[in-house]
Design brief:
The protein is of the alpha+beta class and 147 residues long. It has helices at residues 23-30, 41-72, 95-104, and strands at 2-5, 18-20, 36-38, 76-81, 88-93, 114-115, 120-122, 124-133, 136-146. Strands 4-9-8-6 form a 4-stranded mixed beta sheet. A 3-stranded antiparallel beta sheet has the order 2-1-3, with helices on one face. The protein has a two-stranded antiparallel ribbon with strand order 5-7.
Length: 147
């Protein structure tokens, strides 16, 4: 049975490709999950229309993410931590800590979207990335100061 993939399917193909699969796999998995259409002329036109709509939607999200990136790069965060005599932190500044600091400023992000190159275990100024999706990353300055 020939189907048109609406999304990438691991081991089968990329979105937009026409592949040949067993009828049961198409009927019981691909079509009900919304991962594929049966390969007909009408469905090809529907897929092309859907592809154009998704591209416009992705572009809209990219513009919103770029605007949010510019806004985020203007702010700086201050993490107040306990420090030992040698200037080393008790523990470290984690993505959870940064997510809480951002939440205090009015920006809510999942801690998994925050990118730290190495653990923050000393006082200083650090730059941390925030993945905004659609390939856009914002850089935020974090000031780590002692209590």
């Amino acid at each position: 049975m020939k189907v048109i993939l609406r999304e990438n399917v691991k081991g089968k193909g990329k979105a937009g490709s026409t592949i040949d699969v067993k009828p049961g796999f198409a009927r019981n998995y691909l079509v009900p999950q919304g991962l594929a259409f049966t390969a007909t002329e009408k469905n090809m036109k529907v897929y092309e229309h859907e592809k154009v709509r998704k591209a416009k939607e992705q572009e809209k999200f990219r513009h919103l993410a770029e605007a949010q990136s510019v806004e985020l790069e203007k702010i700086s965060l201050t993490a107040v931590v306990k420090v030992g005599d040698d200037g080393k932190l008790f523990g470290s500044v984690t993505t959870h800590t940064i997510a809480d600091l951002l939440k205090d400023k009015g920006y809510e992000f999942n801690h998994r979207k925050i990118i730290i190159n190495e653990p923050i275990k000393e006082l200083g100024v650090y730059e941390v990335g925030i993945d905004l999706g659609t390939g856009v990353e914002a850089r935020v300055k974090i000031w780590v100061v002692k209590e």
